[in-house]
Amino acid sequence: MVKYSLNNLETVFSAFSDRARRAILRQSANRKYTVTEPALPFNISLPAISKHLRVLEKAELVIQEKEGRIRRCRFSARPLQDAALWIENYRVSGNKVVIA
To answer: Is residue 1 very low, low, confident or very high in pLDDT (cuts 50, 70, 90)?
Structure first.
């Protein structure tokens, strides 16, 4: 039996619905970064980036840690694994959807 939370899947897919959040995940997938770094390549204010990071954190795609006065973020792939399992249940074979 595949185990995943449907509520969390909705949160993950909602987090992916925004282009800026997808870009933040892409640029930060393999490293820790400060909360101000995602704002650099975009013409987006720091409060807007903070909102995006909160959405990603709610989806458990980003984990924030405090190191002294600096807040660092890191990517978490676990929610993606759950989403991939859910999507795999609806794979297409030819022109027909095969529900596993």
So the answer is: very low
